[in-house]
Design goal:
Elements: H1 6-9, H2 20-23, H3 36-44, H4 53-58, H5 65-73, H6 77-85, H7 91-97, H8 101-104, H9 117-131, E1 146-150, H10 154-165, E2 169-174, H11 182-185, H12 195-206, E3 210-213, H13 223-229, E4 232-235, E5 255-257, H14 258-270, E6 286-290, H15 294-306, E7 310-315, E8 348-351, E9 353-361, E10 364-378, E11 381-386, E12 392-395, E13 398-401, H16 412-416, E14 440-442, H17 445-448, H18 453-472
Parallel strand pairs: 1-2, 1-4, 2-3, 4-14, 5-13, 6-7, 6-13, 7-8
Antiparallel strand pairs: 9-10, 10-11, 10-12
Helix pairs in contact: 3-5, 3-9, 5-6, 5-9, 6-9, 7-9, 10-18, 14-15
């Protein structure tokens, strides 16, 4: 611990956001990157706890947080970087978009503000690139084994990176024009600009990973071909089946899934040609986003940048308390009201509300019939119950459904490889990540269901270990 009284000497501070009037006009990153002197002070706040819950309980990849905080405080950037990269393949991603479950478990957070761990993580990796202490490092030699990874999202990239570093030749197949999956096409540029993804893909290519772009496995190449030409296969295609809303009028035009909306906008920013003639734009429209999570917030921020007339976000859950609830004490992930930068840019959130029906004119949505709900305890949990007499309507020219995902859905690869599913509809796998077919593995949301990017990275690392054991045997 570099400074035993650091948590008392320095307050937690955030780098902050670009001014609202400026950032609302573009899709560039809204958050400032942390300055070196700021990070030095924030690292000083780490107490180097005897039992670091941030590492052992809070972080899905088990980042060794107290150690890299100490190295950074002492100006030993390379040592801090080595510690960070020993557990996390892509800290430049998690340092920008992770919800920082580690901070919720920080011991300092019991009676003061937690250490700004996410910002410290981002500073370490970016300083590594800036100082030139983080460069491509191809394996000295390769084993005579080849692995195919299907899907270039965070889980697939983590599998490929881990296997390549271990000396296995890896080819990543992805149907998109550019690798990155959710990182490139699902997360808006204002949260993470895509040069960050491009830089990492370029680095992985320099280290020996091969990326095959625009390839649909099952159409362009077959599962049989992959089995013949590769010693192991890993599927990392994500949870892509969106949760729908079964309500009268759902078939009206102007109602879209969140990912369709976000993918289109990311392609526009990236200069890719849109294949759909039905462009989803919010300019001058009354927009309603159904779903109050991070994806809903991303849609809110996108609609505001499109120049929407107004934006309303509907959340079926009750409004969380402003302070940590007693139901979620430290070190649990706290039930507390969170406002993203998008919420501070405009729009309105309506809590404990659900949509009953959609109404339209000439086949296009124009209005949503809503009702307030209250949550009542029932056998097996709690459920929303409509409040009598609380019905109301909202004008809506564009409706975005952002209610999460329900597994891989009708992915043709499941049929092509003849894979078994679990009782939740995800791809079944054993403790090493192998599916019901020998030599075929699965990583990330395709096996676990919808989750965080950091958990997808952790899954990729673990499944890569299972693949190494299989190939070594």
């Amino acid at each position: 611990m570099g400074n035993p009284t650091g948590f008392m000497d320095y307050e937690r501070k955030e780098p902050g956001y670009r001014p609202k009037h400026e950032r609302i006009k573009d899709f560039r990153a809204v958050e400032y990157e942390p300055a070196e002197d700021y990070i030095h002070d924030q690292a000083a706040r780490c107490m180097d706890c005897g039992t670091p819950f941030c590492h052992a309980y809070g972080c899905p990849v088990a980042n060794i947080i107290p150690e890299f905080n100490d190295f950074l405080y002492r100006g030993l950037w390379q040592q801090a970087l080595e510690i960070l990269l020993s557990t996390n393949n892509f800290p430049e991603f998690t340092g920008r978009i992770c919800p920082a479950t580690c901070e919720a478990a920080c011991v300092a957070g019991i009676n003061t503000a937690p250490v700004a761990i996410r910002q410290i993580e981002l500073a370490i990796i970016e300083k590594g690139f800036e100082k030139g202490i983080f460069n491509s490092a191809p394996p000295i030699e390769y084993f005579d084994k080849r692995v195919a990874v299907i899907g270039a999202g965070p889980a697939g990239l983590a599998v490929a990176d881990t296997l390549n570093k271990a000396g296995f030749r890896v080819t990543v197949f992805d149907e998109a024009e550019q690798p990155g999956g959710l990182l490139r096409y699902g997360i808006p540029n204002f949260k993470m600009e895509k040069w960050v993804v491009d830089r990492r893909i370029k680095l992985m290519e320099q280290e020996g990973v091969v990326f095959e772009r625009g390839i649909i496995v099952g159409a362009d190449i077959s599962a049989r071909y992959l089995k013949r030409h590769f010693d192991a296969i890993c599927l990392a295609c994500g949870a892509r089946k969106p949760r729908d809303l079964s309500a009268p009028g759902r078939d009206l035009a102007g109602i879209h899934f969140a990912l369709d909306y976000l993918i289109q906008q990311n392609k526009r920013v990236g200069g890719e040609q849109l294949t759909s003639s039905d462009e989803i734009l919010a300019y001058g429209k009354s927009v309603v986003v159904i779903g109050g999570g991070d994806t809903g917030s991303d849609c809110l921020g996108t609609a505001l940048r499109h120049g929407a007339k107004n934006v309303v976000q509907l959340e079926i859950l009750s409004k969380p308390p402003p302070e940590r609830s007693e139901k979620t004490p430290w070190p649990m992930w706290p039930l507390v009201l969170r406002e993203t930068h998008a919420h501070k840019e405009g729009g309105e959130i309506k809590w404990a509300v659900t949509a009953k029906a959609f109404e339209g004119e000439k086949g296009v949505v124009k209005k949503i019939h809503c009702v307030e709900v209250e949550w009542q305890t029932k056998e097996g949990g709690s459920a929303p119950v409509a409040v009598e007499g609380s019905d109301f309507d909202i004008e809506a020219d564009l409706v975005i459904l952002a209610m999460g995902f329900m597994g891989p859905g009708n992915n043709s690869l499941i049929e092509n490889f003849d894979l078994h599913l679990d009782d939740r509809g995800n791809v079944w796998a054993d403790q090493n990540g192998m599916t019901s077919i020998n030599g075929v593995f699965v990583a990330g949301d395709m096996a676990t269901g919808q989750s965080l990017v950091v958990k997808a990275i952790n899954s990729g690392r673990e499944i890569a270990t299972g693949i190494i054991e299989y190939l070594s045997a």
